């Protein structure tokens, strides 16, 4: 992922986010995904390559 892609990334809120403020947002691009807290979008993010993102999603499905 090229670092210049993140400022223009299209963030979307998770469909599993709740109305009480526990929300995450996800942005994806070719070969990468980023995850951040929607309440604090400037507070940092988890940046993963495509394979690690798929592993992350699968691990959440097993909870």
Automatic annotation (TrEMBL):
Q: Where is the DUF397 domain?
A: 10-60
Superkingdom as given in the UniProt entry: Bacteria
Name of the protein described by the UniProt record: DUF397 domain-containing protein
Specify the species: Actinoalloteichus caeruleus DSM 43889
